[in-house]
């Protein structure tokens, strides 16, 4: 609307200008090289305007005509780029669908239409990798890695080839090279960690995990689990090499990072070898207060000198009561072992009371009926009643 309005205003001003010139034609004389020309000023202005307009249109046509080859060439290039990108999107779709045959065809079209060396090498590498032709894929990715723009992509391709072939040495070499040139990424750092771990380079493996936290590529829990795995692998190796002090330190670091039943089981033998029974009891007690583990509980009983089932029962009962207060999820495992210890200690009333508590909390499942049958056999030797409970257990 604004453009139409401006155009109307311009036309109106032009008409007014011409009308003014016609009313005031004026008179002018041009004397040039012996020639004398007399004409009205309005005629001169109109003639000049027409001449400039004709000249402008003529030059525009000449320039338009001269640019025809360039426009045709540009159109040809745009058409090929459009088709090339369509082929590229088709290739990426085929790659996502793991359609090797279609991917190879689309990759050939991309190579013909776009003529980008790095892109062509990358797609050829992906096509051969998809076809599990690892030797040729390695060749393409290696060539890509030699280019400036495709170095990281080529190295990542070589890393994937090594992973596919489970070539640990090659994976380690490529991962090291990538760490020098590539921006830290989750996949790269994990590859570095696993490769270093496989080669016994534990310090390097632990260093590879640092960017995961620094760049927020993984949460702390996941990184902690990887660190624990590295320390425990180191502990196992040092233990085989008879390096007791080094193995002790590695197990201690693993436990400090993640104080879990598994890490404590690996740490505990070293504590006992070093004669640190008191510390072992303290760590066992602290961990069992948080999470119940049958094997660790038995170890705690041994360290405390509790040998008979009744002593085990009394100690576990205290832990179970604490689990109930804190609504700890480990209460179930503790309750099941408590029922077993009550029967071994011939505390029939306690055993029945605990079974009733189990029934209220967890229902009448297979475990409940089996324990009822065992209690019946141990306390009253009532085979008939015990068989009845076993039958109910089979139905549960």
Characteristic terms for this protein:
396 residues, mainly alpha, two-stranded antiparallel ribbon, elongated
Structure description:
- With 396 residues, this protein is mainly α.
- The chain has a domain at 22-54.
- The protein is built from 20 helices and two strands.
- The chain has helices at residues 2-23, 41-66, 68-96, 100-114, 117-130, 134-145, 151-165, 168-181, 186-198, 202-214, 220-240, 244-257, 261-273, 277-290, 294-303, 309-326, 331-344, 348-362, 366-379, 383-395; strands at 28-32, 35-39.
- Helix 3 packs antiparallel against helix 4, helix 12 (244-257) runs antiparallel to helix 13 and helix 16 packs antiparallel against helix 17.
- The longest helix has 29 residues, at 68-96.
- The model has no long low-confidence stretch (mean pLDDT 85).
Short summary:
Helix content is 81%, strand content 3%. Helix 14 (277-290) runs antiparallel to helix 15 (294-303) and helix 18 packs antiparallel against helix 19 (366-379).
| Oligomer category | single chain
The gyration radius over C-alpha positions equals 43 Å
Q: Helical amount among residues, as a percent range? A: over 70%
Distance between the termini: 83 Å
Helix/sheet category: mainly alpha
Query: How many DSSP-defined strands?
Result: 2
Strand order of the largest sheet: 1-2
Number of helical runs?
20
Note the beta-strand portion. Answer: under 5%
Query: Can you summarize the main beta sheet?
Result: 2 strands, antiparallel
Average of the residue pLDDT scores: 85
> pLDDT under 50 segments (min length 5)?
none
Shape descriptor reads elongated
Secondary-structure element order, N to C: HEEHHHHHHHHHHHHHHHHHHH
């Amino acid at each position: 609307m604004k453009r139409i309005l401006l155009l109307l205003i311009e036309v109106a001003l032009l008409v007014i200008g011409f009308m003014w010139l016609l009313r005031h034609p004026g008179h002018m004389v041009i004397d040039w090289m012996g020639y004398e020309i007399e004409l009205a000023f309005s005629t001169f202005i109109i003639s000049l305007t027409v001449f400039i307009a004709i000249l402008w249109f003529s030059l525009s046509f000449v320039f338009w005509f001269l640019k025809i080859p360039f426009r045709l060439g540009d159109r040809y290039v745009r058409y090929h780029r459009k088709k090339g990108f369509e082929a590229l999107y088709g290739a990426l779709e085929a790659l996502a669908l793991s359609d090797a045959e279609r991917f190879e065809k689309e990759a050939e079209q991309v190579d013909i239409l776009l003529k980008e060396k790095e892109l062509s090498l990358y797609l050829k590498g992906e096509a051969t990798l998809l076809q599990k032709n690892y030797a040729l894929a390695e060749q393409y990715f290696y060539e890509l890695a030699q280019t400036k723009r495709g170095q990281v992509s080529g190295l990542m391709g070589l890393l994937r080839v090594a992973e596919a072939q489970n070539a640990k040495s090659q994976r380690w070499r490529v991962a090291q090279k990538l760490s020098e040139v590539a921006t830290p990424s989750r996949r790269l750092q994990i590859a570095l960690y696993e490769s270093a771990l496989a080669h016994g380079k534990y310090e390097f493996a632990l260093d590879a995990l640092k960017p995961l936290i620094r760049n927020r590529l993984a949460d702390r829990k996941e990184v902690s689990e990887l660190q624990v795995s590295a320390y425990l692998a180191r502990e196992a190796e040092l233990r085989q090499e008879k390096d007791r002090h080094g193995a002790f330190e590695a197990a201690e670091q693993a436990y400090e990072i993640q104080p879990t039943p598994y890490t404590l089981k690996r740490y505990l033998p070293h504590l006992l070898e070093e004669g640190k029974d008191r510390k072992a009891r303290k760590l066992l007690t602290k961990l069992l207060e948080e999470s119940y583990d049958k094997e660790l509980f038995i170890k705690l009983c041994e360290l405390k000198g509790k040998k008979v089932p009744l002593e085990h029962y009394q100690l576990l009962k205290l832990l179970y009561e604490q689990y109930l207060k804190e609504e700890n999820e480990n209460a179930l495992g503790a309750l099941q072992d408590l029922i077993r210890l009550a029967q071994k200690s011939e505390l029939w009333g306690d055993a029945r009371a605990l079974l009733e508590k189990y029934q209220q909390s967890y229902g009448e499942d297979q475990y409940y009926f089996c324990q009822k049958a065992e209690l019946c056999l141990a306390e009253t030797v009532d085979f008939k009643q015990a068989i009845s409970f076993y039958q109910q257990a089979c139905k549960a």
